What does this fold into?
Amino acid sequence: MKPPAIRCFGLTKQYGTVEAVYDVELTLYHGELLVLLGPSGCGKTTLLRLIAGFEQPDRGTLAVGGRVLVGPGAWQPPERRNIGMVFQEYALFPHMDVAGNVGYGLSRGHDRAARIREVLELVGLEGLERRMPHELSGGEQQRVALARALGPRPDVVLLDEPFSNLDMGLRSHLRTEVRRILREAGATAIFVTHDQEDAMYLGDRVAVMHHGRLQQVDAPERIYHQPATRFVAEFMGLAHFLPARVEGDALVTELGVLPRPADLAQGELVEVMVRPDDVTIRADAAGESTVVERVFQGAHYLYTVRLPSGMEIHSLQQHYAKHPVGSAVYARLDPGHALMCSVHGELQTIPLMDSEP
Ligand code: ATP
It folds into this structure.
């Protein structure tokens, strides 16, 4: 069987007292696009630099395509790793034209010009070989940087926040393009971002990092709906933790009743994680909840609703569901997927709900 594209184990890097990367274990498969996501300072760039070889870890091992690059008695410098890099600031050589930049890492040979043409075609810049970097837009420069990284057919491509210098419109266009280009090239890639939307859009899997540790490595849907930790739950979007109590076979909340997870004891108090799209509201003069805010988001309204207990939660409704601020509503859980509950700080899955109470 083919070894994984990347395998790292116990990777750790400390700067003084800061554990920038701690005990990271990660496996990437060939052709996979993994997004490394986390807030500023969580260690994303350091982990990328450890993989690229710009930093030496304090401990841990790294193998690419089964070849050990870092480990006890092993160290391969960046130029021997066959890893392509795309940086935030493009890092093109300003005195070289597009062909010069793209051809930089390619050995001189009869197929060099053909490979330059091929990768420029892949990134949609055919015909721009003679342009200088300052004659290109930000988006075009980033495509040149990607073409340069893909030129030598690297085992892995690392992209460090490549869209952060681009405006919103270009950013969403380019992320569609980057995904297509990496797929067409059959590349294995790690893409670093602090943007949840980029992560969910791009990643075959998403690795969420916090304080140097990987909190969860999973499919985007699972990261969003079944977070492994409270940090992941809250980092991926609005999340409320609704108090709940085990009564008989049910888990009773203010927004309805859920099935009881098997391992919870009678009377146990837990919290159910609820996102705005898990809560439905309908106008009801006898309803005990009140709309306190309504924010128009184009296709949706985001409502803030005060429950009888005084707790405020969010509910995402279609744009035609108009409830005035101050109106009484009936609010209920309607998730359409298994919810999670927090038991003594640990998150676990609640079985699927059969129907509304
Ligand atoms: P950002 O999204 O802001 O780029 P990041 O997730 O990439 O952040 P890192 O740049 O990897 O985070 O930094 C992780 C931690 O390590 C931070 O606390 C940072 O201050 C620290 N750090 C990084 N590089 C060094 C260094 N060369 N010397 C000292 N501390 C460092």
Summary: Helices lie at 44-52, 98-103, 112-122, 138-150, 168-185, 196-202, 220-225, 230-235. The pocket of adenosine-5'-triphosphate is lined by residues 15, 18, 20, 38, 40-46, 194 (CB under 6 Å). The domain at 6-235 is CATH 3.40.50.300 (Rossmann fold). The chain is about 20% helix and 35% strand.
